Amino acid sequence: MTKEKEDNNRDDPMQIDSNRVPTGSLLTDYLRIYYGKFFPYTDMFKWLAYGNDGKHPGCDSSYFGRREFSFTINSDIDEVYLRFQSFFNASEMETSIKAKCPTKIDIGAVYTVDPAKRHAYAQSGFNPIERELVFDIDISDYDDVRYCCSGADTCLNCWPLMTIAIKVIDTALREDFGFSHILWVYSGRRGVHCWVCDSRARRLSKEQRSAIADYFHVYKGGENSLKKVTFSGPLHPFLARAYTDVLKNEFEKWVSTQKLFEHEERFHKILQLIPDESVVSELAEKWQGNSVRWEHLKHMLQSGSKKTQGLRRCIEEIVFSYTYPRLDIQVTKGMNHLLKAPFCVHPGTGRICIPIDPKKCEEFDPTSVPTVAQLIEELNANASIGADNYVEKTSLAASVHLFRTCFLEPLIKTCKDELENAYNTKIQQTKDSLNW
After folding, report:
1. What is the pTM of this model?
2. What is residue 403's predicted lDDT score, i.e. its pLDDT?
3. Which segments carry the region annotation Disordered (predicted)?
4. What is the 3-state secondary structure (H, E, C) of the chain?
5. Which listed residue (106, 132, 136, 198) is catalytic?
6. Which of 124, 216, 348, 353 shows a CA-CA span of 20 to 30 A to 302?
7. Residue 136 is among the residues annotated as catalytic for this protein
């Protein structure tokens, strides 16, 4: 077969079942189309280069080439995991991704040298020197407090836990730490990822990252620990704001959607969080045939006669136990931890890992996220469109637009300003040294 015929065959509409999650060779075929026509290579390069695109005399031309990428690739036997991939520019990255069709792309740190050449620098040092501040939140970590789903499964009844996490953490990152360039991404199945991309965040030390992770760390204890949230005194201002602005109202909804007080085994778990056995016994007795149990619990614990030191924070502890963000803090603490790239295709669901607008996160519906099969179906329906308009004619267009306008463009402007200021400062210092 001639090359011309091969190319024509690749552009023929593929017969697909949009309701089917592709696996094996079919997934590879879908990914070949997705990476060939949809993946936003230029935008990804602009993001991860942070203005170091070779166009400004003050930029670091080696910066992007020192970034680690990792590919997970399907093989006939098992998955192949390729770490320490690196690319000089956007074109080289695009060529490699199209050739390998990875089922997952992970993004790592920026190292002292090109990760692909790390063995040559083993003696002089190969270390991560820059990395976005990242957060990883999985809904499966809430399995002890959700009753509609478990494991990697999610639905519209339990997804609000991720909305709560976005609201609480995003507000704190902006108001308490002063960060501006924050990207929230749907993981494709069971959670969300957060990338804090300010230059100050990218240059944090491991100790500083650990301090930030600890700042957010409230939910503690192992799987067998009954009580995982304990407050001994007044809430920290950050926690008080989270409770007042988000958690309290969201827990009221959670009581309804998860029917927390309609089943004995569920409200018994809540009673176990109350440290006073006499109060527990009194509540259990009065709840027989009582349908307003949560209101009754609040009234009893917050009344003057029951507002002892041991019960003062009990309502807050219950609310935090069920709704406060549960972070994988090791992801945040480590500089060399890998995190899945935005706009990947989740191999288990076929959904695209799209950005989430934190200002409208309550509107995000994980069940309506475009799938790779859906995009190909939309592509087939618009077979006559030009090569530059593949994304614009599909349901992925809104997500790419959100990424560009709300995150990428403000970030690049800041990066360019920082490069310009640093360059001008360097020039002025050189002039001052010569004048001296």
Report:
1. 0.91
2. 98
3. 1-20
4. CCHHHHHHHHHCCCCCCCCCCCCHHHHHHHHHHHHHHCCCHHHHHHHHHCCCCCCCCCCCCCCHHHEEEEEEEECCCCEEEEEEECCCCHHHHHHHHHHHCCCEEEEEEEECCCHHHHHHHCCCCCCEEECCEEEEEEHHHHCCCCCCCCCCCCCCCCCHHHHHHHHHHHHHHHHCCCCCCEEEEECCCCEEEEEECCHHHHCCCHHHHHHHHHHHCCCCCCCCCCCCCCCCCCCCHHHHHHHHHHHHHHHHHHHHHCCCCCCHHHHHHHHCCCCCHHHHHHHHHHCCCCCCHHHHHHHHHHCCCCCCCCCCCHHHHHHHHHHCCCCCHHHHHCCCCCEECCCCECCCCCEECCEECHHHHHHCCHHHCCEHHHHHHHHHHCCCCCHHHCHHHCCCHHHHHHHHHHHHHHHHHHHHHHHHHHHHHHHHHHHHHHHC
5. 136
6. 216
7. yes
Q: Residue 11: pLDDT above 80?
A: no
For domain 14-216+332-426, give the CATH number. Answer: 3.90.920.10
Catalytic residue among 94, 138, 198, 250: 138
114 belongs to the catalytic site? no
Say if residue 6's pLDDT is above 50: no
The question of whether 264 is a catalytic residue gets the answer no
- pLDDT tens per residue across span 208-226: 999 999 999 998 765 556 7
Residues 232 and 291: their CA atoms lie apart, in Å, by 31
Cβ atoms of 30 and 387 closer than 8 Å: no
pLDDT of the residue at 358? 98
Catalytic residue among 53, 68, 106, 198: 68
